[in-house]
Structure formats: C-alpha cells, structure tokens
Write a structure and sequence with these properties.
About 50% of the residues lie in helices and about 15% in strands. It has one domain: 2-Layer Sandwich (Nucleotidyltransferase, domain 5). The chain is an alpha/beta fold. Strand 2 and strand 3 form a beta hairpin. It is built from nine helices and five strands; from the N terminus they run E-E-E-H-H-H-E-H-E-H-H-H-H-H. The chain is elongated. This is DNA polymerase III subunit epsilon. Keywords: DNA replication, DNA-directed DNA polymerase, Exonuclease, Hydrolase, Magnesium, Manganese, Metal-binding, Nuclease, Nucleotidyltransferase, Transferase. It holds the Pfam family RNase_T.
C-alpha cells in the first residue's frame, strides 16, 4: 500500500512560535502514487491575538478578514489537523518553520507532536539547496526555474502555495521516479535474458598463429625472464 503524502503549508502572525506568534491558516493536499486525490484540508484560524502589519502584508489576513470568515481558534480544529496528517509523509518548503508552528499549537492542546503522529517530513527547500547549490531556492524561484505557472499567486496563501509546491515537488522528483521505474524494467529484462540464454550452433573456428607470429611471441616471453607466468602454467599443464 502506498504511503499518503500531504503537501502542506501554513501562514502565521510572525516568525517565532516560541515568542507568541500563532498559526492563522493551514492547508494540506493529499497525494497518493504521485496523483492528487480529492481529499484536502484548508482552514483559517483565529490567532487570539493581534495581527502585525508586516504579516498581513505577506498573506493579506487581518483580524477583520479572519473574523469575516468566522475563523475558529486553533483549539477548535487542532484535532482535525492532527488526524488529517497522522502517519503521512509531509512535503513542506522550509519544513522547520511549519512544523515548529504545528508542534507549538499541538502542545498548547496537549496533542502529540508532528513526529509523534508518525509523520515523515520531506523538506523541499533542503532538496532544492542540494539540487541547485548557490542559487535562489524560494518557492517563487523554483516555480520560475521549473516552469510552474504562478501567475495566480498575488499574495502568500497556504492553499495556493500548496498547489504550487505540489507541482514543484513532482517536477523535482520526476527524474528520480523515472529512474526507479527504469530500474525495475531493466531488472525484468535481465531476468528474461537469464531465463532464455542464447543458443549457440556449430563449433567455434580456431585461428592459429603462423610461424612468424609464434616466434615473435616466444621472443616476448624470453624478455619476461624466469617469472613468466605463461610458461609456468604451460609447463604445469604438460606435467599434468
């Protein structure tokens, strides 16, 4: 059975989960066998605090906007998020940031951490740094490099970022996936070859050296001296 993968992103009030910042948006898109399923989870969350102007400029979510969307506090949706991601591989760009906020919010509710929920974490930022060292590896930069259309992304948003990240991840891993598929095909070909060896007919034609070639060979062996393995093996064969 293939493992569930969740393309995941969050938006927050700031950068520091240990200093009072809170999660304000969660999005997760389920993928199985490199195909998006119809299952997803997208939630706006009231942070129960003010929204810094700098953060609102990034994602466009002011407290007024969240209240208009009737966004609940995290305590009302935390268990739903935990059950949605449980046991899945999480595909996240800059995973340390999102996992840090999720673990902070889960801890406030007494819920298990992302790791304790049995999630495997794949960080596409780390993948990109390895694949494209010394280059810009933001989500925008990767979309441009890999030909992913990001024209709909006016502001940062967890849902649109998940959709873009899903395409980026599939592009970044396509070659690896193709190589894995090719390896399986090659293995099957090898099995077929072993099961049906080529049948030889007739006898091999032996072409013997002429006198001049034989004499030249003997001169070469003389130059090797007493340690010549060819003559030792020939003598042993004759004694046998």
């Amino acid at each position: 059975m293939s493992q569930r993968q969740i393309i995941l992103d969050t938006e927050t009030t700031g950068l520091y989960p240990d200093s009072g910042d809170r999660l304000v948006e969660f999005a997760g898109l389920e993928m199985i066998n490199r195909q998006m399923t119809e299952r997803s989870l997208h939630l706006y969350v009231h942070p129960e605090r003010d929204m810094p102007e700098e953060a609102a400029k990034v994602h466009g979510l002011t407290i007024e906007v969240l209240e208009e969307k009737n966004a609940p506090p995290f305590a009302a949706v935390g268990r739903e998020i935990a059950e949605f991601i449980r046991g899945a591989e999480l595909i996240i760009h800059n995973a340390r940031f999102d996992v840090g906020f999720l673990n902070m919010e889960f801890a406030r509710m007494g819920l298990p951490s992302v790791e304790e929920l049995g999630c495997k974490i794949t960080d596409t930022l780390a993948m990109a740094k390895e694949a494209y060292p010394g280059q810009k590896n933001s989500l925008d930069a990767l979309c441009t490099r890999l030909g992913v259309d990001r024209s709909k992304r006016v502001l940062h948003g967890a849902l649109i970022d998940c959709e873009l990240l899903g395409e980026v991840y599939l592009n970044m891993t396509r070659r690896q996936f193709d190589l894995m598929g090719g390896a399986e095909e090659e293995t099957q070909q090898e099995k077929t070859f072993v099961a049906s060896p080529t049948q030889r007919t007739g006898r091999l034609k032996v072409i013997r050296a002429n006198e001049a070639e034989a004499a030249e060979h003997e001169q070469y062996l003389d130059a090797l001296g007493e340690e010549c393995l060819w003559r030792k093996s020939t003598s042993a064969g004759e004694r046998a």
